[in-house]
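Components:
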Amino acid sequence: MGVLPTFHTKSSMQRISAISRQTMQVLDIVIQGILLGGLYALYAAGLSLIFGVMRLVNLAHGDLIVLAAYLLLALSTGFGLPLPFALIIALPFFFALGYALQSVLFNRSLGAQVLPALLVSFGLSIIVQNGVLELFSADSRKLSLSSIDAMSIDLAGISVGVLPLATFFLAVLLLGSLSWVFYRTPLGRILRATSDSAEIAQLMGINPRRVFAIAMGLSFIVIVLAALCMGLRANFDPSAGPARLLYAFEAVVIGGLGSLWGTLVGGIVLGIPQALGGAIDTEWQVLTGHLVFLCALLLRPAGLFPRQVQA
Amino acid sequence: MTESNATAGHVAPATSEVSSSYRMQMGTRTAPVIGSVAALVMLALIGLPAIAPRDLLQNLTLLFFLLTLAQCWNLLAGYAGLVSVGQQAFVGIGAYVLFALVALADIEPLLAGVVAAMISLPVGVAAFRLRGPYFAVVTWVIAEIFRLLFAQLKELGGGTGMSLPRSASRIAGMEWVSAAFGVRGPAARDIIIYWAALGLAALVIAGVYLALRSRLGLALAAIKDDEIAAESFGVGSLTAKFGIYVATAFATGLAGALIFLQKSRISPDAAFAVVDWTAYIIFIVVIGGIGTIEGPIIGAILFVLLQNQMADLGPIYLTLLGALAIAVMLIAPKGVWGSTAERFGLQLFPTQRRLVVRTEPTHTSVAEGERHA
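Structure:
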């Protein structure tokens, strides 16, 4: 993209095509990174949602995504259900699970101190991770939707996988729906009111514990969708959870704590360097992402789209 | 800040006026007895290798390592309010620095801990940008970064790790121990590492105890009660927390170096394992009793006993341990020791400050509103 030679001799033509091929390669990687960012936004949206409503960082978030992926796997391969049907069963089940966990565990741990909530979610993470390991062994597994698994479309000379593209659009759709729920519906008004001040919301006749349980249920619905995309995209095993939590957390922090659309930007900011690092050396993929996160943290600790929160 | 410091200066004479009718008391009457019992236990433990079988020594070595890590995490989370999920970073750094120094330059383990502590400075700067739960996850990310970086170092075995070179299986004092106890080389090596682990655990407990009885302990108690109010009285909360973070990183790094000196084999996944060096440690502290010195001791003993009984269960064991920790946190958040001590008024390591009212010169009574410090 620098200065192009004015005389197009044969060798310079070759150079131009070499340069443009390189540019296309980089562009290709960047697009893969942006689409990867969509997946990270799905990981992050559920985490961001419960942070926004109740200032809770759920350390079991990644392991719950893996649990949901195994549930989808069990329903689709174990019971021979088509994946869409498995999804229809898993979504309400996970909503109920989230609602129950919040009512039984997390509501008791929320308070002025950060330790109880952190410890309960960390304990839950260990329980889920080892429970899944006991039930499904350490083998890595994958979800399959045979029709579109390996399909790709051609966008101006760059081949883009249908699955990553669909993941990205699902993320946009999901964030749009969540925003709509938050800012346009009575439920959203209650969620925002409780987020601003649980005490005052209570004075208005709202039961904050129930609102928290609903928020956790919503977060668990997002977890199932994230699990679907994760499982279709790549292999997963019982130990895959913590890494998913860290990507989600990084996307949330880069985007700005508590900002829904920020998670998409954060996911993309994380996805592009991961794709670039991965193109240089596969071992550098995750490391590059973590390092970019640390730089972002040092330069903009409040994230790109900070929201005023009393953390 | 400067303005509030000035106000604190004006307040000072008033508090000294109060102190003429109140006296601060920190010790307990049983403290000398407990002190001498502790000294006897310590002597017995030092002499134990003369009679104890090798597997008991190995179990005790593990206990001392876990105890060191637990005391460090307890100081961070229980006293300084810094809930870290990334202490495995310092275990791994300490261990890897030891392996590097031994493999490349033949330098002693203590230095490995020093280097680990120095690395904790920049790590702390990054992690301290966030508070509360975010601090926790950032420490985890940083530990992951170190794990991935060490996996890149081909000189140290890359992702698969390395064994200590044969020359390094001999450590200082082995001949002497072999001769004195009449044991072979590997057993003598175990005995020396046992003493090192015992010494480290004892030093860390003594260090935590003295720190909590010092000005720093009072500052931490004030910060824990109300950070903003404490700062307005001139307590440098950031300095106190940062100092604690670096000090615990130092001890954790030393423990990591010794743990992997004993194992003689290292890999990035083992050295930076979040389950081994953080999850277990958190469970030990919470089950034993967070925010006390006695709690981690009880927790570590319970953990080693449980592990010997139930390690065969594999993943189920971890699931049960996680459930137990959650149950303790929700039902009896003070843990085994905290609940027992509260009931019977026990205090083996007196770090609480109490105001004693002087009504008459000879007669003293404990004032209302004991402050936990």
